[in-house]
# Entry
Amino acid sequence: MAERVQFGHSRAADAVTTMPSLLGRSLILIAGLTLFHGAFSTYENLSQLKALGRLGTEHRMPWDTAIELLGALILFIIGATVNAPRLNEITWSSQMAKLSIDEMDSRMSFASVNHRGKRLFGNGSN
Amino acid sequence: MGMSVDSYANVLAEYRTRNIRASEDVLKKGIFILERNGLGKLGSEAWPFLEQLALAALDLGRLDIANECISRLDKQFVGSPRVECLQGIRLEFKGAYDDALAMYQAILEVDPQIPYAIWKRKISVLRQSGKIKHAVDELITYLDAFYTDPEAWLELADIYASMSLYLQSLSSLSHVLLLIPQNPFYVLQAAETAYTALDIPLALKFFLRSVEMVPEGGASTRGWYGVKLCARRLLSSLPTSLDAVATSSASETPLPSAHHLALLDQLATERLLAAYSTSSPSSAASKTASVSASLAGSVAADAREVLIRWLQGK
# Structure
């Protein structure tokens, strides 16, 4: 019997989304560390130039730090996407598949209570 | 889910919203909440909870608990029609149908605003005490007044079906489908009623509608069985012109072509085999396999053999 492929899920997607904690969280961690490192580099660069008195008005962030920070942002986006939990089913058919005939046909306003229930379950108090 | 007043209260609230009549579970959890004085925790939800518990207790013959719930509700809501309804149900429980009927009749005559819950109880008492014709007349009068009550139409369909009047049952279900077109369970019920009324083309149409709404899981297995049965029946009767009765339809539903019927037969077979294949996670077979895990593997294989043989028409 051939295995049925779930609609909308590939094997690769399953492999990635079934371990959200590991890959996603590590990516987010690396991105956070990279961000912190980039921020610290900026601060260090600024304080060094101030100490040397070479801080000009057209001072810009060094290009490697800028790339590092952009890289941190991209890593964080990827990590957050991978870390997201599996999407809930919102289709009508998936909701209806969970219900049963008993609850659709219960007709509680017309329900009779005078049946063998009191013989089977009663404790003789009636 | 742990055993706590809050979690049990959530479960019972869900039973209330979804109209699930799980009396044993309600009683067990309700007694748990009552014993731990959880009524205060429930706040304003305590009153619907007591009503639900009273009904569940009566369902299981526990008059003591039902009396306690009803007396608490009576103290809080003096002279409320809902409480009177519960008291009437208690009379029904004791088998005192005449007393209950007299009580309901008195309330209905006095109250200018007709309490429809009491009217429904009256119809239920008439049905329980065997006065079916009176019950049907009363129910039809009720439905003239309150058309948009799918529960009442379903009750009418059930009464007709119990009297083997399947075409009338089908017409009641058609009103249900007008009111609630998106529910596959009512479509399935209409399909099975049509099949029992021997209107096979109409039954096939309804079965296909129900499996269109829910392709797999839930009640779809039942729908696919219906498609299979209808297709097989129509295919076996098509070649002979003498069998015009079998393919005739009281509702004059047109018959699909033999080619389409063969395709539907094939599709239904494939869907049923898939539903019972043990490799898929949500299949019917895997559910039963987990329940009957102690059964030998050969028994399950034999059952599958029987199913396959039936599907292939041997």
Summary: The first helix of chain B runs from residue 5 to 17. Chain B is about 75% helix and 0% strand.
